[in-house]
Amino acid sequence: MIIPVYNAVEHLPECLESIAGQSIGFERIEIVAVDDGSTDGSGDLLDTWAERHPGRVRVVHQDNSGAPGGPRNRAIGMARGEFLFFADPDDYLGTEALERLVAAAERNDSDVVLGKIKGVGRKAPVTPFRENVDGGDIFTSKGVWSLTAHKLFRRSLVEEHGLRFAEGIRLAEEQVFVVPAYLHARSISVVSDYDCYYLVRRDDFPHLTREVPDPAPFYANVRDVLSIVAAHVPPGARRNKLLYRWLTLEILGRFDGRFADLPEETRALHVKLAGDLLRAYMPQTLVDQLPPLSRLRCLLISQGLVEELTALTTLVPRPEPKPRQPPAPAAAPSRPASPPSRRLGRYAPARVLKGVNRRLRRLRRRP
User: Fold this and answer.
1) 336 pLDDT above the threshold of 60
2) How many CA atoms lie within 13 A of 140 on its CB side?
3) Residues 209, 213, 216, 219: is their CA dihedral positive or negative?
């Protein structure tokens, strides 16, 4: 069990106790915890556990690295078990999780086993956990829709292929580890009939998934992952099935309602780097399968149209606060209101709509 720890003293006991109470038996488990420069007493708590369980809990302290990838990599080099499981200090495991995961690995000779993730106050992946999978692959397991590290990995696979996490990156740093693990695995199994891992939202604990990433390292990391996919899966429908995930989540997912609030230079860099990825890795046949609004986003990104793309991301309305008193009757308009846009949605302001449509007409006239 590998745990990167930074300032999690309030939640760490629940995580550790869920590991110590595993039905597989604590005597079969080794905890390797890396204290990443904590200042809240997390390091002292880990040392107490190590003293209480000598040889069972191993702790190393280091200066803060700013992200979990480095601590995880250091722990991989220290681990001695047959399997690795990565947990975060603010989450916890179901009592039978490791017993079921190891049994699936041994039964199916699997190098990777996905255990059902249960969201507690936050979203958790659903697609891979609709049914059990015995000895599948990256396609039959639908593992590409769960790329966090909270899984069981055979340590020999990790060492044979030199798999490590991206360091210094605060979002999606797990993908350069998980994706090649999927692609190199002899088989992949899924345990979907038991809640193995509880992914918890803590209002007092920083969650990296809620942050807007620094564009340069984020897109560089995504490019590394896409290059791995391209190197292992030939062009065609099967590759497109995998690429769809990065196109919709990592690329188009950056251009939601938060995009318009970013500084102008940051928005321009997002568009440039996302456009580079679109042109390099996303075939037109895949883009053509998207819904109309997503295709429009792809067009604007690929053409570098920052202003129009910013306008498009504001079309989803934010809920307005309810008035304390009923509003007074509105005066009759002096002229008929403009009809809602059929192209971009009913909430597009007329000025924004005209600008986007004007650019689109120019693009269509280009050779």
Assistant:
1) no
2) 12
3) positive
Say what the pTM is. Answer: 0.85
CB 107 within 8 A of CB 191: no
Show the tokens assigned to 331.
């005066």
Question: Does the structure show a pLDDT above 70 at 345?
Answer: no
Question: In whole angstroms, what is the distance from residue 136 CA to residue 52 CA?
Answer: 40
In this predicted structure, the answer to whether residue 339 has a pLDDT above a threshold of 60 is no
288 is written with which tokens? Answer: 């053509």
Beta bridge partners of 33: 3, 59
**Cβ atoms within 10 Å, residue 306:** 18
Q: Mind listing the pLDDT tens digit for each residue in 63-85? A: 999 999 999 999 999 999 999 99
Residue 334 has pLDDT above 50, yes or no: no
What mean pLDDT is predicted for residues 162-191? 95
CA distance 320 to 337: 21
- Please give the Cα distance from 158 to 148 (Å, whole number): 15
CA 259 – CA 28 distance, rounded (Å):
47
Taking 50 as the threshold, does the pLDDT of residue 213 lie above it? yes
Residues 6 or more apart in contact with residue 330 via CB below 8 angstroms: none
What letters, b where the CB count within 10 A reaches 16 and e where it falls short, cover 322-355? eeeeeeeeeeeeeeeeeeebeebeeebeeebbee
Percent of the chain with pLDDT over 70: 84
Query: What is the full DSSP assignment across 184-225?
Result: H-S-EEEEEEEEEEEEE--TTS--GGGSPPPHHHHHHHHHHH
Half-sphere exposure of 28 (CA within 13 A, CB side): 10
Backbone conformation region of residue 41, classed left if phi is above 0, alpha if psi is from -120 to 50, else beta: left
Contacts of 157 (CB under 8 A, 6+ apart): 111, 112, 163, 181, 184, 185
How many CA atoms within 13 Å lie on the side-chain side of 35?
A: 22
The residues that bridge with 34 in the sheet, in sequence order, are 4, 60
By the 8 A CB rule, do 191 and 131 touch? no
| AA identity, residue 304 | G
